[in-house]
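**Backbone geometry record:**
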Amino acid sequence: MDLFYFKSQDKNFGDELNARLLPALMPSAFGPGSPLGTMVGIGTILDDRLPNSPGTKIVFGSGVRGLSRPAVLDKGWDIRFVRGPISATITGAPFIADPAYAVRLLPDYKNVGKGTGPVGLMPHFGSLSAAPWAAIADRCGLRYIDPTGDVDDVLRQISGCKGIVAEAMHGAILADALRVPWARLAAAAWRREGVHVHGLKWMDWAMALRVDPRVEIFAELPPAGGGLGARLLRKPLRQREIGKMQDGLSHLALDRFQLSDDAIHATVLEQLAEHTQRIDAWARQQSA
C-alpha cells in the first residue's frame, strides 16, 4: 500500500526531506501496492492548493500559509497534528512541532549531538541567485550548506557544525532537532515568500518549541534577474547589503545562537514516534 505525500510545485528541500523521512518512518504506509491516498508532511502548505484527491487524506504536521482556514480541509482531510499553535488555532487540530524533528527517529540520527566544526551558513533555496553564498561563507570562515543538496549530506553537514546560521527555516529546525545551536538570518526569502507567510511560519514553529524567532542578521537583498538596466540599478544595493551581511556574519557571537529546551525536544520526539507508529499500524491493517 502507498500513502503519497503532496509535493509542492517547487523542488525544494522540504520535498526531498519528505521523500527521505516519511517512507523510512512509516514503511507500511509507503510500501509497494495500490495507493491508499495522500499525506502532506513537512512544509507550509495548508492552503487551498491541497489536492481534493480520493482515498485517505492525512495531514502530518504541515503548517498554514495564512490566517483563514483553507476550505479544502473540510473535504475529508484527517489532520493528525499541525506544526504549531498558529496552525492549530486556524485548523482546530492539535499541534506538536514541525515533522522534520522526526529525523531524530531515524537510526542514523538518533544519537548525534553538537559538532565541533565551523559554523554553517544555510540560505533558503529561493535565495540562491540573490547572492554568492559559497563565497560569502568562505570570506566569513563559515561552512556553506547548499539547501538543494542531498538530504543526508545536508544532515551530516549540519550535525558536524558547532552552530548554524539559517535563512532556511528548516535549516534552523534540523539544527535544533540535531541539538546544534542556530541563529536566524533574513536576507531574501522574506521578500520572495511575502513577509506575512515568512513571518507566520517562523512564529508558528518557534511558539511550538518555545524558542525566539528573532532575526540576528537582516539584509535587503534585491531580487535577481530582470533586464540589464534593472540589474545595473540594483547592483549598488546588492553590494551594500552583501557587505552588511558579511560584516554581521563575521561578528556574530556564539552566545546569540539558541536551542530549544531538552525536555521539550524529548516530548516532541515521543509524540512524533507515537503518531508514526499509529499510521504505520493502520496501513498494515489495510493491507492485511
